[in-house]
Amino acid sequence: MRIVIVDDSGARASVLEEGLREAGYDDIHFVPPRGAFVARIERMAPDVVLMDLGSPSRDTLEEMLLVSRALAKPIAMFVDQSDDTMIGAAIDAGVSAYVVDGLRKDRVKPILELAVRRFTAFSRMQSELDEARTALANRKTIDKAKAILMAQRGLNEADAYALLRSTAMNQGRRLVDVAEALITASSLLGGGAA
Amino acid sequence: MTPVRAAFLPLTDSAVLVAAREKGFAEAQGIDLELVRTTSWATLRDRLVYGQVQAAQMLAPLAVAVTLGLSQQPAALSAPFKLNSNGNMLVMSGEFAAALEQDLPARLADPLGTGHDFAAAIGLFRRKPIIGIVHRFSGHALMLRYWLGSVGIDPERDVVLRVLPPSLTVEAMRLGEIDGFIAGDPWPAAAIAQGLAEAVAIGARIWQRGVEKVLALRTDWMEAHAETVDRLLVALAAAARWCDDPANRGELAALLARDAYVGEPAELIEAGLAGQVIPRADAPPVAQADFLLFHREATAFPWRSQALWIYSQLVRWHQAEPSAEAEVAAGAVFRPDIYRRALGASGEAMPGASMKLEGAVTSPIGVGAHRGALTLGPDRFFDGRVFDPERLNEYLAGFSGTR
Fold first, then answer.
1. Which residues of B touch A66 (CB under 8 A)?
2. In this predicted complex, what is the ipTM?
3. Is the pLDDT of residue A105 over 80?
4. SS3 at position B56
């Protein structure tokens, strides 16, 4: 079974490929959605095309599927139209799939399920990475605000932190937002400690 | 607050949805309108069909095509409200346009003459010109085909139509992958501003009141949530009125310019809203009245005859199999009955009929309305044909020479 993965992100495509190979599929090709990519796909004559639902090039691919004579009447999208949970999972994961007509459902379903799992795992990895980055940035901001309070109000670190926290709670704002406001105000007033 | 999620594409004609959310019109109707930015029509369609969103800013022909089962999973869609008329432009590279009329205002004012020049230019060009369209089931693709067909150009034999999303059109011009494209604002204007293309034909001069985006809903959802739909339409009508007011153009352009929406410069968007077409990077603007309409003349009213015009073109270009059932189903996608139900008490001008001749109004004319004065602006096709929805087959037979 020939599978073509259309994807901009090399990392996500690799994660998907790895999973597919582990599951025993070995005829896998990558095509980045640029330039004359539909012509390349057409020449490859794939059985299954997997594509990021967020890719702006889906319309281009679908047009090719409509007019192409190389692919034997390709059919749409999600394997089993009646399987709402599967479709929901695929959309949530950001997977769209196109399958050559006539391919048995039980042969395609495992591929789609695998793609959904891998796409989900990849985006979880990304959001964890983003969260970690944000957390680090937030901590730096709060440390900076604490330093300003310690220098200008003669507080120790624990008291500076407590002051930031109680201000945030009283104003119903996030701690990091209060810290950011303090840093901005301090720099406007020419505060030195920042 | 009733949550409603609506998918949109980064285009100037997402304006009514954006204003409904950002200017509080939705909130005033108790609707928490969440806008989901989408980069392809395929994904917008799938989100709507599979219920991830309840509403979408959809190409009117795509709503008809999905209902007829021509675009992936078939689903009955309804369009109770049009989000705009017009707003498109065909732009071509300077190399191609060199063979066209060089007096730019004259070129744009005469689509028939420019069409014939275009036919001659195809023969002079170094390859079969590749023209980008954003989707086969788009108002602008149908308008481009109509224009080419009227001057004897076969859009499937004499040019290459290549589908690509609006946001990639400018880059494709830069790379020379396409020789021109037709799309909604601000993308043609962006290509011109970057010196990659010049204006060749303005949608509003091919069909003076071209159908563009509609508010598309799944018919089953619409029927199960009548009360929410009514409030949503009241909110959108108020937003459309606000968008059409020249006093709000600057603010609207600034809203749309945000990265969360269109993400292109506000000046570019504002020029389009004001109907100021800059035909070439170094040229003075050409004023195009009715370049883009949101509210006046009951723009939002979904005339059934317009859904049937779309159907006639899908049949004309062999994209839909003609049948009595398909004709009925296509016409029923536009829902003037829902529009009337929702906006009956709102003070919006309300047409008395649900169908009209398309292309028959040559100068502004007062028409029968249930309430308020309703004036329809000129809606001629550039070749003077009139579409009578009751005589669809005769209309189609009239194209036999060009298809």
1. 136
2. 0.88
3. no
4. strand
